[in-house]
Structure formats: structure tokens, C-alpha cells
Amino acid sequence: MNDDNLTRLRIEYGKTEAMRFTGHLDLYKTWERTLRRAGLPLAYSQGFNPRPKINLSSALPLGFTSQAETIDIWLEDPVELDQIETSLRSAAPPGINIQAVSEVDLRAPALQTQVIAAEFEVTFFDPVPDLRERVEAILAADALPRVRRKKEYDLRPLIEQITVLPEDEQGKPRLHMRLTAQEGATGRPDEVLAELGLPPEASRIHRTKIHYAEGESV
Amino acid sequence: MVRTPHEISQKLEHLLPGIQKPGRYTGGELNQVVKDWDAIATRVALVFPDIYELGMSNLGMSILYEIVNNRPDALAERAYIPWVDMEAVMRSEEIPLFSLETRHSLADFSIVGFSLPYETLYTNTLNALDLAGIPLFSSERSDDDPLIIAGGHSTFNPEPMHPFIDAFVIGEGEDAIQDIIDVYREWRDTGKPRRELLTELSQIWGVYVPALYEAHYLPDGTFSHMEPLIEQAPLPVVKRIAPQMPPPTTRFIVPYMDIVHNRIPIEIMRGCTRGCRFCHAGMITRPVRERTVEEVVSAIETALEQTGFEEIGLLSLSSSDYTHVVELVNAVSESFAGRNLKISLPSLRIESVSVDLMEALKYNRGGGFTLAPEAATEKMREIINKPVSTAQLLETAREIYARGWTTIKLYFMIGHPSESMEDVQAIADLCKAVLAEGRKVIGNRAKVNAGVSTFVPKPHTPFQWVPCDTIERIREKQDLLKRELRGRGLKLNWNNPEETLLEAWLSRGDRHMAEVVYRAWQGGAKFDAWNEHFDYTAWLAAFDQVGLDPAFYTHRRRPLDEVFPWEHLSTTVRKKFLTEDYLWSQRGQTRVDCRERCFACGILPTFADLRRENPGEVWQCPEVKNKRVRVQKSSALIGANQIPISGD
């Protein structure tokens, strides 16, 4: 492999209905296959068991959909951006929706280290008459002690914002939330729902935006 | 019961998040085919009666899916068996077994086809019908119920499943499925009763309709004969074959989750010329037909474009016997160099793994290099007709280790009644000898993994007369191996003897066995192929309820003149040939590869016309030049397809 020609690209994409139950590791596989179908010269690590050079941004919990996913890929040789975008669009499986492709500096920090917050939209299957009161109650709390995977933590400081949105066209209640997403301090929307006393499985959760640290443009 | 796709989807929306691996039940993968349900009248559900990860790895399912969906007048959708957590939820929420593509209940399909490559899928098949609300017994189905068909290697003796399946495909399914759909369409358009459909299906080459036959038994419980209940019912039913291997399937569905085989499977050859006497596949998949190197390479190219898979599996029963194997591996390696692909070539034969082939493969060495000596003494090798010399095996092992592989996997088989403890000891000794060769070459990095399976006498093979070893003796043999094969570099895998027994009961079962299958399922038997689910006591209880002795099926040496309950299904390998081969095995007499000399097993006389029409290297049987007159009966419905009559 000739490192002189190495280029790094950033792909913004949506993870939609067909892939909402595809986990993080399987998503790597799906991307590797997509890039092979697209005929792009994906770079691989050296060694006995070469791995594709792909780097995914923060993991999306199983069952969520998203319009704000990002992946960095490294190519052995430069390819025109337009051509990459066209071939990716035709090679992407149902469940991956290509939005934009751009070139990134090879020395730019890894994506997942730059994430600071994420925004989600929650749509409930059934009416929640006292939704506003429930939200106000947890926003008013000083601390929201919870246990996740046998670890105690306080959910409250991880909640940056919760807004009750107007109902959707089918009359389903909706919420918007912005949660902190940093290493060791990541707010999960399903935890917020549980704290609101609403079963997470009675809703759909969609990631609408990821916020990166200053200087990272996505 | 929840019935419409919309109702099923609404229920799933709430339920899937609480289920293990929900991706098994969502469909929507790349290359799945979704046709307009309302615009297409003949709807086929293809069911692999185990979980998604296994079913998605089955090549037969992919082939049939493509063939049916290529027809403008038909559609095919997939269904697999829900894992126990999902099944519990489906039963409590009254969700029927549904297809992945459009979430229609299986009961809404015209035809439901089950793939039955092995016997431990039988109870799951009943469970699938039950989950879909389809009557389990063929006799209880009405004109509104789907037609239930099944095919696959285990259906060469379909009798343990005879009351549950309307029609079996005996042999290769590529052409048979087309004929079945044609017959189904014509029947539906004329609005005749279901019985007519069954009669017409029985006229298709390779299709067996069990309801058209009555089984007769002798007072001692052994089989007497099969009586056709209508004049048109063929006897025997001759297996279907494709005269030439059809173009390979390339548009595989690409899963979003890890499955058993994450690869492009390309069959390079069908059948095997070796004649190992225990090998069911080797007897039933004759004649040997090969694809050309060009066809295989071009199929891989297309499949890669359509799937992007990271691995290619070049499949056959004995890949190193493929005529142009070195050329093939080199061509594949060169054509796809630099694309970070793994090429796997399973099923290599010790005596035909050349140094050239190892050289060609060494850049693709993944896990281990697998060889199947099956037996470790000359005596056992002669009995099973796999005469490999120990010297040759050790030399091959040395060459393999020298080319960078650190692990050699050796497959053996124990449990033939002629096998002594010395023969089993020899397996342990041979594994150690191979390890010693490895240590000479690469020191302590060398490993040997021994996989020791237990012999199951299979119908249509020269061992169909042979009893199984007793469970005590199998344990004794396994214990010896467990004692011997331990320590650095050695690993042993073996089968649970009770699971082997189940396979053995069902393999040579008759129609009475169907009642046992039914009772076992009622008693909770399912996922019999899964260690943690196999319920031996449910099976013993079922035998007890039906009043049958399991040992009758497994531990009885059948006399040479016994008539078997699967003889009305012809593999075209003649019983005379099998009998002779059985007697030869008792004398320790071996047969050479049948490419060297034709032993007139029966394939060629039956399919002489097909061979004449497909000359040259396409078949590995000798050429047939002279036009001989063969008796042939033409199908009432399908003029183009003729039913060959077995030449016994």
C-alpha cells in the first residue's frame, strides 16, 4: 500500500428503518460490503488479518433510527468526490441513506473523540396526556439518580434540554431532547423516557443531530 | 388470530425491542425481492425450519428464491423459525408465522416449501405449520390451505414426514419447482378439488405425493411394499436431476447481522466420484457434474458486485477432485487479487490435495486446514471405502504445516459396528502423529483439532443394512478419545450420542415413525439440532406412546433380502449395486474412484439419454455414444419433461 495517496473521507448518512436493529459491529460489516460494491479502493490495515480502515462516529443504540450518522473512510487512491457520492448512493443498502461526502485532513482527530452532544426526537405510539407535566418535573429536579448496568449515575446533568413538540400528523405526541454525549458522560434517551415514567418500547427514537467539539465541521 | 400484514406489523412494533436479535424478524435486507402481492397469484413461501442465521446460509434456499422470483407470474418470500423467546411472544400475542418480505402469514401463501437437508428439522417443520395455523396433516387441509411441499437430502427417505407434506421433491429442485408452480397455476385456474392437484403433481418427474400410496408391512413389522392407490402414481419415483448445472445464483441477500456463513457460495461441482460407503450425499447426488472455471470466475465477479461479501466459498462434496482445481484457485486468486477477499475451499481429499493446490491456497489460509481421513486403520478404511494411507496423510500434513498453517482439523467417524477399540485408539495415535509432524516443522505452534462424529447408517447407501453401535459402546469409544486427546496442541470435538440416535431413528424410519415425530413435537420437541434444546426424553416418551421399539430402527442388522420403506424412491443407484458394495465392505474390498472405472451403479443406464445430450467433461460418467431405446413415459401436463423409469 502506498500511503502517499491515502485520502480520508467523511460520509454523512442516515440510518433508517431497515437497519434499526443492526448493531455497531454489524454496521461495520455493512459498510465494508457497501464500499466493496461501490468499487472504492478502501484501505486496509497491514498484517495477517487486514481490517478495513473505517471509523464510525458514536454508536446508535439498537432500535433507533437516525439522520445524523457519520463515518470516516480511508481510500488507497484519490477518487473524485462526485464519483464517490454517486457510486455510494447506488451501492448503499436499504437502511443507509447517503447525505454528503467530503474530504477530511488525514491528521484530523477521530470522530468519536469529538462528540459533545446529541439531539433526539421521540414519537410516542399512544397519547400521553400529562407529558408536559412529566417533563417539567424532571427538569425541575436537582438530581436524577439512576442505575444502569449496575452502575449508579446522575442523569440530570446529562440532560441539556427537553422540549415538548407539537403532535405529528397522526396526532402522536413528540419530544425533542438534547443530551450530553462525552466519554463517560453520555445521556441515553431511553433512560430519560424511563425517568419520565414512559416505557421506551412504546415509542420510536430518532437521532436528529450530533454536536462535535469546536473546529470539527459536520 | 392477528391476520393481516398491517396487524402483524403493528404488533411487532411494540414487541421487537424486547426480543433477542430482532434483526432476525425484520427482513428488508439488500437484494431481498418484494413483489406486488395483489398483482401476483402464485405466492410461494420458502421456509428453512431453523433460525435466520442458519437459513440465510443455505444455498438451496437462495437458488429457489431466485428461480421463483424470476418468474413474472410468481413471487417467493422467506420465513425462518422464531427463536424460543420470539415464539413465546408470537403464541401469546397470536401472531402467525409470517414472511420477512411482506409479513404475510404463511397461511396466506399458495405454496409453502420446506427445506429439509437433515432430519433434526422435522419437529421444527411441524412447529412452523402450527405457528401459521395451517393444519398439520395433509389429509385435513382444504382447498383454501396452501400446498405444502418439501425437498432436500433427508427427503430421499420422506416417510417419517409423509402425513404432513403434500408433495416431496426427490432430487434437485431447480426444474421441479418450475413444474410445480405450472401445475399449481393450471389447477387453480380450473377450480378442481385439491385431490386433483395432488394427482397432477405426482406426474412431475421427481415429485412424490405420499397420499397416493399405501404402505404394507409384514407381520414382523418390516416393510413389505408400497401400493399405488391410483393408476397414474409412478412406482418408483425417480429422482430429479439437472442435466447440466444451471447458471450459478449470484444475487444473494446480504444480511445486516452476522450469520453462519458470511460468504458468496458458488457450487463448483455436484456429486462425488469416490464412493465412500457411509456417505449419503455421495450416493444421492450422482452423477458428477462440473461447472467450468470461466463460469465460476464470472459468477464470483457478478456476485461481488451485487453483494460485496468478504469471502468466497467454492463448494462441492470433494473440491480437490474438481478436474481443474488448481487452475480454478489460481484464476480466482488472480482475478480478485488486492480486494481483501478470503477464498475458502472446504472438503479437500487427502490424496488429491497436491503441493500445487496448497501453494495456490496458502495466501488464503484462514483458520485451519481441514482433512477428513474418517478412519485410522487400514481395516476400517477398507470397510468404509476410503483407502488413504497413513504415510500419505502424514506427508500431506507436513506440507500443510510447512506452508504456514498452524492448525490441521481432522475429521473422523466412530461407531461402525465392525470397529474395535484398537481402531479407535488408532485415531488418537494418528492425531498425535500428525501433531508430531507439525512440531518438526513449526514447533509448539502446531495444533490438531480432531472432530469425531458418530456413524449414522443412511438409506440408499451400502450401509443401509448396518446396525448402529450401542450408546454404551459409543460412550466407551468417546471416553477413550477424551482420555487420549488432551494436552498441548490437541483438541477434540464429539457428538452427543443421544442426538446421533435421533438422527439414526429418523434416517431409516418408515411411515409408523411419523406418529413418533408428531407425538415428540406434541411433547415439546423442537430445535432438535440444538444441543440445549434437544429433548431425548420427549422422543423416548413418543416411542412409548406409539408402541414402537426405537432399536427396531437403529440396532437391528437388516437381512440382505429385506425390502426397505424408501425403495419406491429411486436415486437410480441400483439396490444390486448397493448390496454388492455392502458385501465388498464385509470383505474389506475397496473400489477405485469411479472416474477411473465405471462400476455401473445405475446412473448411466437410467440417464443415458441425458448423458448423450451432454457429452464431454460436463459429466464425469463415461460417454454414451450409441442410441439405445429407453422406456419413457411423458408427463400428462408438461410435455417437455419426461419421467425416466429406473432401469432395475
Structure, explained:
The complex is a heterodimer of chains A (218) and B (648). Chain A has 2 domains: 3-112, Pseudouridine synthase I, catalytic domain, N-terminal subdomain (Alpha-Beta Plaits), CATH 3.30.70.580; 114-212, Alpha-Beta Plaits, CATH 3.30.70. Chain A is built from 4 helices and 11 strands. The mean pLDDT of chain A is 93. In chain A, the strands form 2 sheets. In chain A, strands 1, 2, 3, 4, 5, 8, 9, 10 and 11 form a 9-stranded mixed β-sheet that branches. Chain A has a two-stranded antiparallel sheet with strand order 6-7. Chain A has helices at 24-37, 81-91, 131-140, 189-195, and strands at residues 7-15, 54-56, 65-75, 96-104, 115-124, 145-148, 151-154, 159-165, 174-182, 185-186, 203-212. In chain A, β8 and β9 (174-182) form a beta hairpin. Chain A is elongated and about 60 Å long. Chain B is of the alpha/beta class and 648 residues long. Chain B is 35% helix and 14% strand. Chain B contains 22 helices and 21 strands. Chain A binds chain B through residues 17-23, 25-26, 29-30, 32-37, 39, 42, 44, 50, 52, 62-63, 91, 93-95, 125, 200-202, and chain B through 13-14, 16-18, 21-23, 26, 28-30, 254, 256-258, 262, 304-310, 339-340.
The chain pair forming the largest interface, with residue counts per chain, is: A-B, 32 and 26 residues
The CATH top-level class label of the largest domain in chain A: Alpha Beta
Q: Based on CA inertia axes, which overall geometry of chain B fits? A: globular
Report the structural category of chain B.
alpha/beta
Quaternary state reads heterodimer
CATH architecture of the largest domain in chain A: 2-Layer Sandwich
- Low-confidence residue ranges of chain A: none
Structural shape of chain A: elongated
Main sheet: strands, sense, barrel of chain A: 9 strands, mixed
- Proportion of helical residues of chain B: 25-40%
Q: Work out the radius of gyration of chain A.
A: 19 Å
| Secondary-structure content class of chain A | alpha+beta
Strand content of chain A: 35-45%
Q: Using only CA atoms, what is the Rg of chain B?
A: 25 Å
Task: Compute the number of strand runs of chain A.
Answer: 11
Strand order of the largest sheet of chain B: 2-1-3-4-5-6
- End-to-end Cα distance of chain A, whole Å, is 29 Å
Number of domains in the coordinates of chain A? 2
Number of DSSP strand runs of chain B = 21
Distance N terminus to C terminus of chain B? 52 Å
Order of helices and strands of chain A: EHEEHEEHEEEEEHE
